[in-house]
Amino acid sequence: MRVRITTSARLHLGFYNFRKGDRVYGSIGVAIDKPVLDVVVEPLEQKRIEVVSSQDIDDVIRRVRQVFDIGAKVYVHNSIPRHVGLGSTTQLALAIGVGISIIAQHRTEIDVYDIAAKLGRGLVSGIGIAAFKYGGFIVDCGRRVYGDRLELPRSASDVPQPIIQHRLPKDWRFIVIVPRTSKPRVSEDRELQMMQPPSNIPETLQYELYATLLLEMLPALWKGDIESFGTALTRIQILTGKFFEPLQGGIFCCRETEAVIKVFNELGVYGYGQSSWGPVAYGLVDIDRSERIFIRCMERLKELGIDVEYATIATPRNDGAKIYLE
């Protein structure tokens, strides 16, 4: 038996809570249909895990080998660009982990959150895990901290769970652009250092984040009001960027991402932002204007001398990862 799992990227839309009591980093995000990850896992007689992949995934495979003591061969056919803010590590780890678990347990009912904890996912955000399991628009509960240290989840109960999951309108689109930049990518070890629980969060900042999510973004989503949703999205992104400005050197991670955001603004997208630590930037548009804005955006970036590593028009993915037994 072979197991094929297909999933795709996620966009992190920002935080609605930095810290309140023992809860930190309440996150907002959305699953999108591109880029796609396609993983096949098949049993191997020898008790070892072999990998066939054109992409360097050694960091993920090391963790997988620590957790699973069975024989399996993993093929990665399509992949999500790594360490650019699209959540590739979580999707890759879960796809491989779920595939191996199905082979080991001979059943498809697998606890994704248990696998996520064992593979060290969900340190700060649960958006990628919920995007894998459910898809759609997601708000998670944030991480619970004990004392003043943020550590890797020890069990499924430590992983941030979704408190809201909702389908996005089929005619909404995200223009996704990864500019090429010389700025070093943020490693997971570095992220652990950077994301230790904050203190002395201004109440006015917390209130503005809560109000934007609860009074603007969610009602707009329920009504399918893309313009109001985009306005709320941009506000949360700016507030999030300002909070992390001392760590990333600006509201956005680098000059190239800031250039993409400025072009989005010029072209009239409904909302925009940077996913995670970047450099990926995204703009929210409707289906009717998506191709026209995408083409003009690529032209403007070329005029500005911004080299693009990856670009696409993505549709919201309103369902979880697909599992096929072959």
From TrEMBL:
Q: Which Pfam families did the record assign?
A: GHMP_kinases_C (PF08544), GHMP_kinases_N (PF00288)
Alphabetized SUPFAM superfamilies for the sequence? Ribosomal protein S5 domain 2-like (SSF54211)
Cite the annotated pathway: Cofactor biosynthesis; 5,6,7,8-tetrahydromethanopterin biosynthesis
Name the chemical reaction catalysed here.
Answer: 5-phospho-alpha-D-ribose 1-diphosphate + 4-hydroxybenzoate + H(+) = 4-(beta-D-ribofuranosyl)phenol 5'-phosphate + CO2 + diphosphate
Q: Sorted alphabetically, which keywords does the UniProt record give?
A: Glycosyltransferase, Transferase
KW Transferase (keyword) present: yes
Note the Gene3D superfamilies from the entry.
3.30.230.10
> Coiled-coil annotation: which residues?
none
GHMP kinase C-terminal domain residues: 217-292
User: E.C. number, please?
Assistant: 2.4.2.54
Q: Does the keyword Protein transport apply?
A: no
Spans traversing the lipid bilayer: none
Q: Which GO terms describe its molecular function?
A: ATP binding; beta-ribofuranosylaminobenzene 5'-phosphate synthase activity
Top EC class per UniProt? transferase
Q: Which residues form the GHMP kinase N-terminal domain?
A: 60-136
* UniProt record similarity statement: Belongs to the beta-RFA-P synthase family.
Q: Supply the NCBIfam families for this chain.
A: beta_RFAP_syn
The role this protein plays is:
Catalyzes the condensation of 4-aminobenzoate (pABA) with 5-phospho-alpha-D-ribose 1-diphosphate (PRPP) to produce beta-ribofuranosylaminobenzene 5'-phosphate (beta-RFA-P).
What does the subunit section of this Swiss-Prot or TrEMBL entry state? Answer: Homodimer.
The protein, known as? Beta-ribofuranosylaminobenzene 5'-phosphate synthase
Q: Which organism is it from?
A: Ignisphaera aggregans
